[in-house]
User: Fold this.
Amino acid sequence: MLLQSNMAKSPEPSKTMAEPHQASLLDKLREKSEELRAQDQAARKPVEEALKDIDRTLWRAFRWLDEALGHLEVIRPKIGHVFRLHNVLTIEKPRFDRGFVTFRRRPLAGMEVLEHVEMFYRVEGAEPIVLRVSPASAAGIEERLRGSTLVYQYQTEQDEKRVVRYGLFHVQTAISASVRFQPDYHRQLIEVTLRNVDRFESVSLLFPPDKMNEAALEDLVKFMMGEPNGFLRRAPLALIRGRRDDPMPASALPPRT
Assistant:
């Protein structure tokens, strides 16, 4: 017969309540991204409708800018920008010369849509600039000029012993500028790239199609003219590039006859 101990059994340690499950950082990120993705999908229009809307938006921009450039070519206003090419030269308040708008179409999803709309224009300084530099610095200055769209000629200046003393750059102060509207039909965005509009560089902005309206085009032209405007604040900045990219050929706009 087993004897039972009179000693009271010590109580078992109480089991602590299970702590609630805490979501990991990855879970939180996954939940947030799925929520935003769902919102983005809900905000997007059906593909065919979106294609037509973007195409119509670009056509309106084409017609509006085409008329605006025609008026500017008659008025030829002064541009309120100062174009500085590093420490090489400065062109202050050039005058609008002329411009044109072009487009390209392509097939997409059984439709013909605009592949891009692009505006080219030229502004001119008062008179050519002559740079008289040392031969050692000529190569660096020529590299800057090549990337600026400015037309120039180079020659050397020699002394009586036919030793090169100076390099002479004769620079035409005609600046070729452009604005390109590139639609991304998949993301339902329009990328607007400005080259040499207010300085020697490229800037790209991303516009939802409904924001590329007449008010935005008005701000764009005011920005081109150097007038107060809010164009750069209308859309997120996509890219800023110096003028090391391939410049627009100076022959895009032929000389005025």
Notes: The chain has one domain: 42-252. Residues 42-252 form one domain. Residues 94 and 216 are 24 Å apart (CA to CA). The first strand starts at residue 82 and ends at 85.
